[in-house]
Amino acid sequence: MTSRTIVAFDFGTKSIGSAIGQEVTGTASPLKAFKAKDGIPNWDDIEATLKEWQPDLIVVGLPTDVRGKALEDITARAKKFANRVHGRFGYQVEMHDERLSTAEARSELFEMGGYKALSKGNVDCQSAVVILESWFEAQWA
Predict the structure, then answer these.
(1) Which of 7, 48, 110, 133 has its C-alpha lying 20 to 30 A from 58's C-alpha?
(2) Long-range contacts of 82-91 (CB under 8 A, 24+ apart)
(3) Half-sphere exposure of residue 62, counting CA atoms within 13 Å on the CB side?
(4) Where are the transmembrane segments (predicted)?
């Protein structure tokens, strides 16, 4: 079992959630949500987070419908974001199916803190946690 540090992103056009996780434990924790304008974050903020955590790998959620088919616009934009992260910072980036991650994130947050916990940034970061922990599970399957 390896002990890589992995950062995950939940791409969105207005907000991009992030999480950090350890492969050896298969667990993740929320980091922060980055504001985005039409899917474009402040790349300096992304860079600062990557420098702080120095991940071995980055996982970006791949938005699809419940049957796993690409969604009209957002799937391609998430792929473009992943390609830009790789191109700008040189990290290996993997895409991972994020089906129903937002619904699961909302449910987990509600259990922890009720409606007050359901702020947009919290949901986006918790979605990144769900994506990363799902990625861990897929590695062990």
Answers:
(1) 110
(2) 82/11, 82/58, 85/9, 85/46, 85/58, 85/60, 86/58, 88/43, 88/47, 89/46, 89/47, 89/50, 91/50, 91/55, 91/57, 91/58
(3) 14
(4) none
In angstroms, the CA 33 to CA 103 distance is 17
Reduced to 3 states (helix: H, G, I; strand: E, B; else coil), residue 126 is helix
Q: What is the end-to-end Cα distance of the chain in Å, rounded?
A: 13
Q: Return d(Cα 6, Cα 97) in angstroms, integer.
A: 16
At residue 90, φ and ψ (nearest 5 deg) are 75, 10
Distance CA 4, CA 112 (A): 28
Question: What average pLDDT does the segment 17-40 reach?
Answer: 93
The model's pLDDT over 97-122, given as tens digits with 9 standing for 90+, comes to 876 555 555 566 556 555 454 455 56
Q: How many CB atoms lie within 10 A of CB 135?
A: 23
pTM of the model: 0.84
Which pair of structure tokens corresponds to residue 132?
């990363």
Please give the Cα distance from 12 to 63 (Å, whole number).
9
